[in-house]
Amino acid sequence: MNLEELIKPDSVLCNVSARSKKHCLEILSELLTRSSPDIASEEIFTALTERERLGCTCVDKGVAFPHSRIPGLKRSSGALMKLAEPIEFDSPDGHLVDLVFGLVVPEQLDPDDLADVDDVARMLRDGVLCARLRATTTSSELCDGLLAGHIETAPKLKSAAEA
Predict the structure, then answer these.
(1) Would you please indicate which residues are annotated as catalytic (active-site) residues?
(2) Rounded to an integer, what distance in angstroms lies between the CA atom of residue 62 and that of residue 58?
(3) What pLDDT score was predicted for residue 138?
(4) Collapsing DSSP states into helix, strand and coil, what is residue 36?
(5) What integer pLDDT is reported at residue 115 of this predicted model?
(6) How far apart are CA 105 and CA 47, in angstroms?
């Protein structure tokens, strides 16, 4: 996975004030359209909401990973938000969510798209990376922390996949 191609600095936002899970998904949808301006944020919001109805996309310990397939999307794109205050996200572990990584992929998935979903999910389970992201105070620090953390966790991901 080339995270630098998947997520752009203008799709990363720190200290977001979200009132609810729905409001969080609305903000996330707006961020995700920055990389795919030909797709309406309402379409992304609807897809993410429908995906959440199938089952909560929380990864673990305050991290959510809303993701969905989007018709007409040419390439996968992601967005990251750190919330100013944690919110209820219907997490199976009962934790409130403060880190949200959104991912939209083309409707017709290829092996790279599937690998991106798996890689992001694994990355978001890394406690050291999540602690680093939670310690950030600006959007640029959040983006840099994600990209640097991805590089540091990449060998762990590879060895876990090989095991």
Answers:
(1) 67
(2) 7
(3) 97
(4) coil
(5) 84
(6) 11
Confidence category of residue 1, pLDDT binned at 50, 70, 90: low
Q: How far apart are CA 21 and CA 49, in angstroms?
A: 10
3-state secondary structure of 101: strand
Residue found by looking up tokens 């996330």 in the block = 28
User: In which residue are the tokens 């920055």 written?
Assistant: 34
Among candidates 134, 48, 126, which has minimal Cα distance to 85?
134
For 57, half-sphere exposure in the C-beta direction (CA atoms, 13 angstrom radius) is 25
The DSSP letter of residue 10 is: G
3-class secondary structure, 87: strand
Q: DSSP class of residue 78?
A: E
Higher pLDDT, 132 or 114: 132
pTM of the model: 0.88
- The yes-or-no verdict on residue 127 having pLDDT over 60 is yes
Q: Which two tokens stand for residue 48?
A: 């993410």
Closest by CA position to 66, among listed 35, 128, 112, 21 = 21
- The residue to which tokens 């309406």 are assigned: 40
Q: What percent of the chain has pLDDT over 70?
A: 91
